[in-house]
Amino acid sequence: MEYRNFKDVKTFKEAFVSNVENKYAIDFENSTPYQQYVVLGEMVRLYIAKDWHNTIEATKSSKARQVYYFSMEFLMGRMITNNLMNAGLYDTVKEAFDELGLDLNEVEHQETDAGLGNGGLGRLAACFMDSVASLGLPVHGNCIRYRYGFFEQGIHNGYQVEHPDRWLKDVNVWEIRKDSEAVEIPFYGHIVMNTENGKLKVKHKDAEYVKAVPYDVPIIGDHNHIVNTLRLWSAEPASTYPDNAFEYHRKIREISSYLYPNDDTYEGKTLRLKQQYFFVSAGVKCAVRHHKDVFHTVTNLDKKLCFHINDTHPVLIIPELMRILVDEEGLEWDKAWRIVKNTCAYTNHTILAEALEKWPVDLFQNLLPRIYTICEEINRRLLLEIAIEYGDNSRQAEEMAIIKNGMIHMANLAIAGSFSVNGVAKLHTDILKNIEMKTFNEYYPGKFNNKTNGITHRRWLVQSNPELVEILNKYCGEGWIQDMSKLEKLLPLADDETLQQEIFNMKRARKSVLANKIYASQGVSLNVDSIFDIQVKRLHEYKRQLMNALHIMYLYNRLKTDEHFRKNFYPTSFIFGAKAAAGYAFAKEVIKLINTIADKVNNDTEINKYMKVVFVVNYNVTYAETIMPACNVSEQISTASKEASGTGNMKFMMNGGITLGTLDGANVEIGELVGDDNIIIFGMHADEVNELYRNGDYNPYEYYQADERIHLVIDQLTNGFFENVSPNEFSIIRDNLLYNDNYFVLRDFDAYVKAHEKANELYKNQKKWLHMSIVNIAKSGFFTTDRTMQEYNKDIWHLQPIKINK
């Protein structure tokens, strides 16, 4: 029935008008864009319901091997446009809306970004879900249904302020609540063990239970009738609960309230660990139950399932699966451990110590008593194995121990309990194998592998850049969306005047869209003929937004005092977008500095014709869809060796932006693909950075004394240069740079200045710049997540695509 509603424009138009009027009991002409969005979304969801059901049934009936992909984040963005395009409905709906006098874009923008993530980790997981569905692979996402997400960012007097992201305040048209699949998760209490008929029996006494209720969201493949599932878990009261009902309900609400609650306190750490076990236990229990419904045994679990652990947050999958196999299914430890190790795979996303999670033993044991005893046993047996290889009290045992110094190390548990450990870019994987996790790599030969990240071109090109789509249709022919290698057809035309003019027009059109959005929301007017120099990403010291800000201060000083420089400087608009974690005081102070610089630059009538600075407020996926196609210079300036991969660099590249960056993360592979002439690389290499860390002889104060440019901008942080703030406002930044410059901002500053001078000169030669832009677009096909997922599947998952009778 719902299929027929979209069979042609006339039928859809009639059904749409009727559904709006019937749902809201109003005449259609009085309906609002939001009401129209709700009805459109519901119609699309009902339209794909048959494909969704068929995908589930085909997976069951074929007894297909499946992957359950666990991630604390899935930064999906708005889904309406992507779903219309992938389902093949966009053109029908667009034509019908045009005939009805409706703006489809306005209706699409009624959808709120789903508050299920913060940065690259979540956006990568979302890209993965789009690609696996489009490739027909049976991969299911698991996450928490956060009521408030990360936060909605505001800026008050230059400071970041955090507001609840109430993305669920309105109806979520995509989700379906599945009460029948709810499970109860135990916390606290104590464990009683005994032996019955020679078998270990474990009982969890006096536990506090929480009900996990799943909400399923469809992930629609690209024109292939495949619909996979993203399952979001919501915390609700269990069937029985403690006497203090008010406190119990408060604790439950916290579990699925916020992404990454502040963990500076014991209570905050407890909540984070509780969140992780909550969605891991729920997801694993349901997966095992579905497996048993089909196969009636768990002994073949590793042959038919893979639990993929995205970063360390879901590592509790490993002891939870052991608990189910040993305590509930009655398997012997060794058999259960073999199954677990052959079922779990782990992706490492960072070498930063702060992100390689570890938990205090007392907290962990109190909250998860049975899971703790399992971790204890895994650790005991691991150390016995290591002792056989290396002897007692070895260095290897100290490095690889899961429990040590009163802490449980989750990355060590992940490596021990997985059959595959992958990094996310060549450089990152090499650092894992040869430096950070060298001992593990030597002990587990062949376990570590690389899978370079990607992005879904369906959202970051097809959906976001219609002008470029038109160009690619013309020059690359049909089928480039399905085969991104066809973009290389542009390479022989990189110097073609007609193509270059079309690329120039495309970029200017996209810059105009972004400039209009910024002016409408923040009142800052940008010159669309200026260079759009953009750095948008999570705010962290290693990403070095601070170096970018200091460089802008340097440019301001030079433009004020050097007439020759001023005459030769190509006007530039510096655009920032970032959220700082609520408890990350230094990062929030960097945001204040950027906004203070913007206030000074933009209000200086002598300078603002040459340079503008803007910090876009509440940067998110939807904002990124406007930002990425508008970029000329892509700032990818992390300290070499610190960025695992990055995906913003790929989005900018795919839309013709030129990377200005360090040899870090996927910048290395971008450079290899496009060649040295089509990327701007600066700064120390990873081996130089690691050498400085080893030697410990870097003294940032020496650079302050030796370089008058650095000396001036650092002094200006605290000498009253910024009239509207206290001279002490940025003293924490000044002190950090001079005495604790852990990410080598001052060491790389001169090279960064020179890289910008090169970019400014290159942009003046538009024929050369457009050549570079075309080469970057042509080579960007490598970075589609379709390629990434095919590599995961070939080397790790070993899935067969699901076939649907259309």
How would you summarize this macromolecular structure in one to three sentences?
The chain is of the alpha/beta class. β7 (190-196) and β8 form a beta hairpin. α10 runs antiparallel to α11 (333-341) and α10 (317-328) crosses α13.
Describe the structure.
The chain is α/β, with parallel strands linked by helices. It has 33 helices and 23 strands. A hairpin with a 6-residue loop joins strand 9 and strand 10. Helix 20 (497-522) crosses helix 32 and helix 21 packs across helix 29 (708-716). The chain starts with 8 loop residues before the first helix and ends in a 9-residue tail after the last helix.
Keywords:
single chain; 806 residues; ten-stranded mixed sheet; six-stranded parallel sheet; 33 helices; 23 strands; 15% strand
Largest sheet: 10 strands, mixed
Detail the poorly predicted runs.
none
Overall 3D geometry? globular
Helix content: 40-55%
Q: Round the Cα radius of gyration to an integer and report it.
A: 27 Å
As a percent range, the share of strand residues is 5-15%
Number of helices: 33
Helix-strand makeup class:
alpha/beta
Report the strand count: 23
Average pLDDT over all residues: 96
Span of the ends, CA to CA: 16 Å
